């Protein structure tokens, strides 16, 4: 124990922050839907799997990259609209917990369907980025992680511009603010919900491609949803900045804990550490970092 | 909930003790004679364990309104605790280790129920996942729990109480049936007691409950404790009477969801509902696999079966939430009321008043 290895610490920290970005990416999909329709969409992970699996299977069948991207996006839009029609609309005005359970069912359907259509084997996904670490001031940084972070930043930028400067975005914010008022001024809720689910599909596609490139496209991809949940709890279910900050916090603490204190627990703490961090935090601030105070919705 | 109270004046009267009496005497006397080995091993034993787990979760989620996504953790705690009590305490009777393991599950339930004192709704639901992951990790990581066996697998001990062994399929069925019946009876009494009413008050309106003097925090922790106790014992049944060999990986998130699905399909806040839901959940995959191989032949292999089971289960959940939010129980009650009404009609043709309930 002669002196603390700062260089190694920084390396672990940066690695953690960058993987945190990947968590945020999944969490943003949740936040979009929760904000506008009050549904905690457990099926976000299944949508991610569905998107990634569809894309990979198309590419493997010789469809060009860009075209596959467009087709997959179209498929996700269709799924979003179908979900609004078949699941959400009949459940209008039911308790948020009922809607949550419906999305649990939805995730089973999507996971089953994705693998029934495209098979259960593991697909590799190459986005054309080398995963070679490069060195900045003696600290190794993964190129792929940096690329993922850039994509996430671009996505967040796109979403904020979309929400701030377009009419649809304005409508989204109105619905998120007050559903009844939005309905009263003539906004069409079903259409907005369908759009939100389609946008969440887009987020799922982006996250699915990045996670798929990292882990391989397979069933376990839909389990990244479990990584995003503590991020949401930490950041608040209805805040995009919260999702990002929460993701970074969880990513960093998780990696640092695994490296520095994991050995005392016999390792493998990643499966639950994020939840403990989120819980400890919640006991101090029950609505997360940026969440609205009102959490008494159930 | 019981038809008898509504139709006390109706001509065709069913006393409320009759249905459980008939079901139990059928289950104890007729089933052991007519049942095949397949019926016990593949249907009745998992059905009983899952039903009990459903009863436990229903107390927490259906009655007290605290959604838990970590039920499988308490199944695992129960199973592994009973295994260790049985292994390590010399001369402790089996029933003793089952009861003790229920208390261990209850204690763990209280620990993971603590967040419910500050969190509500989704935040609480997500925090119960902590139990799920932590327990599974601890059981896999520390081989002490499984007596240093490879990958945490434990084998069930021989089941015997007061010198009578319950090791055959029928014996294990009777063993399981007895425990499930006792705990279900207890659950019935509980939900109609003051504590049960406190659960419902906390579920329906926490603030109002607090105003009329319900100790909200204590009530929540009691709900977590009792629910975990019952789920823990269900875990013992799952491990000792049904599977006989279990590993921590068997108590994964899918199992937790399965138990949640049982109470959604069967009916929230209904003890009977857990049995209906468990029956549907145990039987439907078997029907689906028969039907699939009948319709599609070899095309319907195990992979396809697995996936279509997921799809069917998911679709069932959504369908029930939309069409029958109170679950199979309310469907059953409607059918029964209708047939009772029809019976009365036939018996008393010409009478003016029809019971409307």
Largest sheet of chain A: 2 strands, antiparallel
CATH topology of chain B: ABC transporter involved in vitamin B12 uptake, BtuC
Structural class of chain A: mainly alpha
Helix-residue proportion of chain B: over 70%
Oligomer: heterodimer
Radius of gyration of chain A: 20 Å
* Overall pLDDT confidence of chain B: 85
Question: pLDDT below 50 for ≥5 consecutive residues: which ranges of chain B?
Answer: 1-10
Structural class label of chain B = mainly alpha
Q: What is the beta-strand fraction of chain A?
A: under 5%
What is the overall shape of chain B?
Answer: globular
Strand order of the largest sheet of chain B: 1-4
- Tell me the series of helices and strands of chain B, N- to C-terminal: HHHHHHEEEHHHHEHHHH
Structure description:
The complex is a heterodimer of chains A (298) and B (357). Chain A has 298 residues and is mostly helical. Chain A has one domain. Chain A is built from eleven helices and two strands. Chain A has a two-stranded antiparallel ribbon with strand order 1-2. With 357 residues, chain B is an all-alpha fold. The longest helix of chain B has 28 residues. In chain B, helix 3 runs antiparallel to helix 10. Chain B is built from 14 helices and four strands. The chains are: A mainly alpha (298), B mainly alpha (357). At the A-B interface, helix 4, helix 9 and helix 11 of A face helix 6, helix 11 and helix 13 of B.
């Amino acid at each position: 124990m002669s002196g603390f290895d700062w260089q190694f610490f920084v390396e672990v920290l940066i690695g953690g922050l960058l993987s945190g970005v990947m968590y945020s990416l999944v969490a943003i999909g949740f936040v979009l839907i929760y904000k506008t329709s009050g549904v905690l969409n457990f099926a976000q992970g299944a949508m991610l799997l569905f998107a990634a699996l569809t894309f990979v299977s198309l590419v493997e069948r010789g469809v060009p990259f860009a075209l596959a991207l467009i087709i997959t996006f179209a498929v996700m839009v269709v799924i979003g609209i179908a979900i609004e029609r078949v699941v959400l609309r009949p459940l209008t005005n039911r308790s948020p917990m009922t809607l949550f359970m419906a999305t649990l069912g939805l995730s089973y359907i999507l996971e089953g369907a994705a693998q029934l259509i495209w098979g259960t084997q593991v697909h590799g996904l190459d986005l054309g980025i080398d995963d070679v670490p490069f060195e900045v001031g003696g600290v190794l940084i993964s190129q792929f992680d940096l690329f993922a972070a850039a994509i996430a930043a671009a996505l967040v930028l796109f979403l904020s511009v979309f929400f701030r400067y377009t009419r649809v975005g304005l409508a989204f914010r109105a619905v998120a603010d007050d559903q009844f008022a939005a309905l009263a001024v003539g906004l069409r809720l079903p259409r907005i919900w369908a759009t939100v689910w389609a946008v969440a599909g887009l987020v799922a596609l982006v996250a699915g491609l990045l996670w798929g490139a990292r882990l391989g496209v397979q069933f376990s991809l839909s389990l990244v949803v479990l990584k995003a949940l503590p991020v949401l709890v930490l950041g608040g279910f209805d805040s995009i900045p919260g999702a990002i900050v929460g993701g970074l916090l969880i990513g960093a603490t998780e990696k640092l804990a695994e490296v520095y204190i994991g050995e005392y627990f016999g390792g493998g703490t990643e499966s639950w550490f994020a939840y403990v961090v989120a819980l400890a935090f919640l006991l101090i601030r029950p609505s997360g970092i940026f969440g609205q105070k009102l959490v008494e919705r159930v | 909930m019981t038809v008898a109270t509504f139709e006390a004046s109706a001509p065709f009267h069913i006393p409320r003790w009759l249905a459980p009496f008939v079901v139990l005497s059928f289950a104890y006397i007729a089933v052991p004679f007519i049942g095949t080995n397949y019926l016990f091993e593949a249907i009745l034993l998992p059905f009983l364990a899952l039903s009990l787990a459903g009863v436990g979760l229903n107390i927490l989620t259906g009655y007290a309104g605290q959604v838990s996504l970590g039920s499988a953790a308490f199944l695992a705690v129960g199973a592994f605790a009973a295994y260790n009590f049985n292994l390590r305490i010399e001369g402790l009777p089996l029933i003793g280790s089952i009861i003790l393991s229920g208390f261990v599950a209850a204690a763990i339930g209280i620990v993971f129920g603590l967040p419910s004192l500050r969190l509500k709704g989704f935040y609480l639901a997500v925090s119960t996942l902590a139990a799920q992951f932590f327990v599974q990790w601890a059981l896999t990581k520390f081989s002490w729990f499984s007596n240093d066996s490879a990958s945490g697998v434990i084998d069930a001990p021989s089941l015997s109480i007061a010198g009578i062994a319950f090791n055959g399929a029928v014996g294990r069925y009777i063993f399981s049936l007895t425990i499930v019946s006792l705990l279900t009876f207890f659950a019935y009494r509980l939900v109609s007691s003051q504590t049960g009413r406190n659960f419902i008050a906390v579920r329906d309106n926490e603030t109002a409950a607090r105003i009329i003097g319900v100790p909200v925090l204590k009530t929540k922790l009691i709900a977590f404790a009792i629910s975990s106790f019952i789920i823990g014992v269900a875990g013992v049944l799952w491990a000792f009477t049904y599977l006989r060999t279990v590993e921590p990986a068997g108590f994964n998130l899918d199992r937790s969801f399965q138990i949640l699905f049982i109470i959604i399909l069967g009916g929230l806040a209904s003890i009977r509902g857990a049995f209906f839901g468990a029956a549907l959940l145990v039987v439907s995959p078997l029907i689906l696999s028969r039907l699939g191989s009948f319709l599609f032949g070899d095309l319907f292999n195990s992979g396809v079966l697995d996936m279509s089971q997921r799809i069917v289960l998911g679709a069932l959940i959504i369908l029930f939430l939309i069409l029958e939010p109170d679950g199979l129980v309310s469907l059953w009650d409607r059918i029964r009321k209708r047939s009772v009404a029809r019976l009365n009609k036939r018996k008393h043709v010409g009478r003016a008043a029809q019971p409307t309930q």
